[in-house]
Fold these 2 entries.
Entry 1:
Amino acid sequence: EAQVTQNPRYLITVTGKKLTVTCSQNMNHEYMSWYRQDPGLGLRQIYYSMNVEVTDKGDVPEGYKVSRKEKRNFPLILESPSPNQTSLYFCASSNERSYEQYFGPGTRLTVT
Amino acid sequence: DAKTTQPNSMESNEEEPVHLPCNHSTISGTDYIHWYRQLPSQGPEYVIHGLTSNVNNRMASLAIAEDRKSSTLILHRATLRDAAVYYCILLREGAQKLVFGQGTRLTINP
């Protein structure tokens, strides 16, 4: 089944404790991205990647890092999480020739 | 990014058609009109997209005004499972970033 998976689905952590949210897709998609969703602000793009070893900032990249060492994986790294990064995070992927983006199920992160 | 305007909420009854409007008066010639929806507790899901002509797929139909300044997503026979937030998004040809607005929250009454 074609899908985007994210882990963990739920995470509660404390300020400053480094964490990684993994994202993996099994569709051989070139394009992957991370979004965060906050009430009243909609979904905003954090980072995106056009292909392996190619990443770029989205609209709200501060406090986040990403890497794209393999085509299928695009982890989101929070080196020193802060409470304002409490949010619902979505990973998405698409084929460069297709306009349809596939989203993962989301990761709900709480930073206390 | 060109802006879209949608009603905050709409309500309909099960098994009736639903017409979800979207205004995009500043659309440019290379902007595609996309619709995504987000069911409760799930990630967004692609519904349909088009450029100039009306489009149909298994999920919905997209009617695009002749001047392209507005469009309507049509769910032909709503079910309870169609209750979701529907987003109308303009995406320039070759671009990949989706800019989500507030969307329309659709409620389906049994």
Note: Chain A is about 0% helix and 50% strand.
Entry 2:
Amino acid sequence: SQKIEQNSEALNIQEGKTATLTCNYTNYSPAYLQWYRQDPGRGPVFLLLIRENEKEKRKERLKVTFDTTLKQSLFHITASQPADSATYLCALDAGLADKLIFGTGTRLQVFP
Amino acid sequence: DAGVIQSPRHEVTEMGQEVTLRCKPISGHNSLFWYRQTMMRGLELLIYFNNNVPIDDSGMPEDRFSAKMPNASFSTLKIQPSEPRDSAVYFCASSFSTGFNEQFFGPGTRLTVL
């Protein structure tokens, strides 16, 4: 069955550094992948979508890569700020219309 | 637009009671999703509807769970009878179905079954 793995432990980085989060998947070849941000007590919020034929996507300080050979996506936040502290979820197309399969998320903590 | 609306925001009930969670999707969206989130299992899709029709309910844990979407602006998720292991945060999300679109999540309902 499809399996998605994200860094299970929290990622702690210093303000101004680049945060890199990993999403690995197995037993599947998704047509696209999405990244969401979730703050405590709130629902996930969409950040970026990248398709299987795209290597990289950027949006302001965010960058996502998609390596279908390695079956991996990397999510980068450059010049990180304490306000970037949240849990980040990757979600893969499940091959059925709009269905997504979510990873368990990585908690990012940016300290001053 | 007010976004996806869920009610109640918090629900505390006793084991064996019926629980009904409600969702109003964003106007114009034609796909609706119910998720459950726990620390142990993360965000799990329970069921999703497209144009008010259930498309995939393979994530519904058992017969105690049921979901309906009587019209494009309202959906319910019912648990009867509830059990302590159903305690979780339940999210509703909606999207405009094109196969690639983002999902918009509601604030969630935190359910505690004692």
Note: Chain A has a mean pLDDT of 93.
